[in-house]
Specification:
There is one protein chain. This protein has about 325 residues and is an alpha/beta fold. It is about 50% helix and about 15% strand. The strands form two sheets. It has a six-stranded parallel sheet with strand order 3-2-1-4-5-6, with helices on both faces. The protein is elongated, with a radius of gyration of 32 Å.
């Protein structure tokens, strides 16, 4: 996913503004020129300038002197050229921009249709912005669903794949590729909206992970019942982190070290043990994960949902297990 897909509009605005300034300058210059050369009233000078630049063919206001005729020739040359450029820029900005947006929208819709295993971000507020920014760094494909026209303009400027509409509308979610999505993140402003979104999205793809943001942690159970896989409360998480900074700063430093996207020294990664994986049916000691992949396994998540921390080297790995490890870079081995 690349930034800058929609940045074509900025040069057009600058070009249009420049040509309009030049055109107004020609009108002002013509008016002042006729007044200085011929001594006519300013209103007649402006009228003479307009009919000259527009080439409408009306007669002269007064008989021109020799200097006035030379000035008119220059005014026709510069004025007609500037007017033509300004009209072209106006046409390009208002007409071609609409056509480009239409074709760009169709192209983006086709791109979204081809996505699989992507993330759908519902809501592009402060939380949605940071999620999109960090997903962009990891290379994980995502689509943003946003209903606010002002925020949609920002998404266009960023060049993010997006769809404008109500994220709780099943048709909108289907157009965002929910049936093939890996996860959906509900980051709408109100808990009620996120809850209704969760209830709408879960039946469309029951295998999809749904992560919902809540303002009130007491609503967590409602979201879980509605189908959310995980519920995150920014206020609760923020308070917990502050307490950890006060009581266990070294632990927080370690977490920052392995979770920050910038200047990574270490990285937390997941290794899935598939049925055809060379790790399947071997013990941790036999798999030699540390020696062959350069990572240290500190937890194993079983298919049942059980997570075994600090697993014993003699623990036998089974298909469906997920190894949680620390290393750099993250392996993609199976």
């Amino acid at each position: 996913m690349k930034r800058g897909i929609y940045h074509f509009e900025q040069p057009r605005k600058l070009r249009l503004g420049l040509y309009l300034i030049l055109f107004l300058s020609v009108l002002a210059g013509g008016t002042v020129g006729y007044h200085w050369i011929e001594g006519w009233p300013l209103n007649e000078c402006l009228y003479m300038t307009v009919i000259t630049v527009s080439t409408v063919g009306f007669g002269e206001v007064h008989a021109l002197s020799h200097d006035g005729q030379l000035f008119t020739i220059l005014l026709i040359f510069f004025g007609v050229t500037t007017a033509a450029l300004s009209l072209t820029a106006l046409f390009e900005y208002f007409v071609l921009r609409g056509l480009t947006n239409l074709f760009g929208r169709n192209k983006m819709n086709k791109h979204i249709e081809k996505l699989s295993g992507h993330v759908i971000i519902c809501g592009y507020g402060r939380t949605g912005y940071y999620i999109a920014r960090d997903l962009l760094k990891t290379g994980k494909p995502f689509v943003v669903v946003e209903n606010d026209p002002e925020r949609v303009k920002i998404l266009e400027e960023e060049g993010f794949l997006h769809f404008q509409g109500d994220s709780s509308d099943e048709e909108v979610l289907e157009k965002a590729g929910i049936t093939k999505a890996e996860a959906l993140v509900a980051t709408l402003t109100k808990d009620a909206d996120n809850l209704f979104l969760t209830m709408s999205a879960h039946p469309l793809n029951r295998d999809m992970q749904i992560i919902a943001r809540v303002q009130d942690p007491d609503n967590t159970r409602k979201f879980i019942k509605a189908g959310a896989s995980q519920v995150v409360s920014p206020f609760s998480a923020g308070a917990t982190r502050i307490v950890q900074l006060l009581t266990r700063p070294a632990v927080v430093d370690l977490i920052e070290l392995v979770t920050r996207g910038e200047n990574l020294a270490l990285e937390i990664c997941e290794i899935t043990v598939d049925a055809d994986s060379k790790l399947a049916n071997k013990t941790l000691a036999e798999s030699r994960v540390r020696q062959t992949m350069g990572c240290m396994v500190f937890a194993v998540k079983r298919p049942s949902g059980e997570t075994v921390f600090d697993p014993d080297p003699q623990m036998r790995l089974e298909p469906g297990d997920v190894l949680v490890a620390i290393q750099k870079p993250c392996p993609t081995d199976k």
